[in-house]
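Dear colleagues,

As part of the handover before I leave the project, I'm documenting each prediction I ran so the next person doesn't have to rerun anything. This entry is a single chain, and its sequence is reproduced below.
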Amino acid sequence: MARPVGWILKEDDRERLLAAFPPRYSKVIAHHVTHWGRSGKPTAPPSPASFKVVGHADDKRGIEALVVSVDGDCDRPDGSIYHVTWSLDPASGCKPVDSNRLIKEAGWTETHMPHPFEAEPGWL
C-alpha cells in the first residue's frame, strides 16, 4: 500500500492558525494537507507550494476541516478538495479521513479573507 504524501504545517503557522480558527472539537489534528492519499502512487513527496486557508467545513456532529488552496487551486489530483482536518469529537467515531466525506457531502463556507501559511513537503 502506498504511503500518503503532502505538506506538514510549520509549527509557528499551525499555532497561528489554531488561534485564528479555534478548534470546535476536543481532539485537535491540524497537522497536514494531503496531496495523494493511500490510493495514489506517489514516488516522492510533492514540490514546495504556497498555501492559504480559504474555507471552513463542519458537520456539527464531530468533525471540522479547513479548506486550503495549494498554489491557487483547491482541487486535489484525486478529485477531492485540499484541506487540513482541524478537529474531531472522539465520541463521534469520526476519523481524519472523514474530512473528505464532510467536504463532499456538507460543503464548505469561504473564510472572510484568505489566511496564508507555510508547510513542508513530506510523507504523512
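The mean pLDDT is 93. Residues 5-123 form one domain.

All the best with the project,
I.
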